[in-house]
Amino acid sequence: MSYLLNLLYAALLVAVSPWLLWSAIRKGKYREGYGAKFLGLVPRRTGNRSCVWLHAVSAGEVNLLQPLVERIRHDFPHCDCVISTTTRTGFEIAAKKYPGLDVFYCPLDFSWAVRNALQRIRPNLLVLAELELWPNLIRESHRRGTFVAVVNGRLSERSARGYGRVRPFVRPLLRCIDLIAVQSEEYAERFIELGADPNVVQVTGSMKFDGAQTNRTNAMTTRLRQLAGINDQDIVFLAGSTQSPEESLAIESFRTLKDEFTNLRLILVPRHPERFSEVAQLLERSGLAWQRRSELEDSRDENARILLVDCMGELSAWWGCAHIGYVGGSMGKRGGQSMIEPAAYGVAGSFGPKTHNFRDVVRLMLAREAAVVVQDGDEMTAFVESCLRDRERMQDLGTRAQQLVSEQLGATAKTADLLSWLLPEAKPQRRAA
User: Fold this and answer.
1) pTM for this one?
2) Choosing from 61, 132, 140, 341, which is the catalytic residue?
3) Total tally of structural domains belonging to the chain
4) Which CATH number does the domain housing residue 103 bear?
5) Is 61 a catalytic residue?
6) Residues 177-207: pLDDT tens digits?
């Protein structure tokens, strides 16, 4: 089976190589980590301590795992943690968040690459965030006696249908997994229907709520607010994790409202760093006064009411500066980005109509009237204007969102408790308890 998968992966790699080359040249993507990706040349772990290898695909999953990593390191201080990721953005954020841990690019699912990586890391437990079912990695880990866990698992109806077409292949793969901790009963049923052992499928809720910061006076947010010169009279509209054309829509909303509401400020945080220059050019053509975040350390333009955040890893803290929010990636094909962080801060939040990647969270928020869907640029402008005209409505929307987040907390603790059974150090303690 491994040989067939290797051939399939190689064929796919050849097929997409022109696109990869174009992305590397034009966007600066896929230029790093070739040794780790193709040969499994990840950092070699020394010593005989137990080890947890946690894999997060990109920035969202890296942020998701932070409270779980902190919990593991606190409860099991004699256990090593290592972090792998797939994308450059994820790698940069992981390196920043976990300066004391080994962070590396996850090997591609070629049998020799994952085998080398496992030999160098020697993990006792492999933790995969959400839905990373890489056959060779999971099978090789299982063969070596490494426990495998999926955390914050989710399985959409569409994905379940796709996996169902190859169920005879998927079922034995799922049977190599020792724990599948999922966000909801609905997801649990889908995993079991595909062949997962019901005894290893556990409903924990969504860990995304646990990682959200709720304190607007935290050190990072306070520093950024001071750096940007945001005062108590300002009303900040933040459009975060945006993709084209969402920045232009937010800019037009600001242009429409800025003369009447002179205390309005706009903060733009594009999802991908390769688009910073593109958005900067968009702002330059707008004729509006704006400034880059990267320039604030040297000097601040007092006339600029628009800020382009061209630094990675700061979005969470910037949400703590916002009063009105728009969560991007929700008017195109991406399927949305997490709206939990602005909700946790009590931001009056909005997002576009295409949020299938966060269907459960969206359903909760809309049922509680804790967010608003905007279909286009006109509705975005209307939403921002309504918040500016009715401050009580803006505050009520944010309060409902914050209360919703507080009610969903606890998934990380449940997940860590389940993972503890798979760690050698924990078993004697658990028996004694």
Assistant:
1) 0.76
2) 61
3) 2
4) 3.40.50.11720
5) yes
6) 999 999 999 999 999 999 999 999 999 999 9
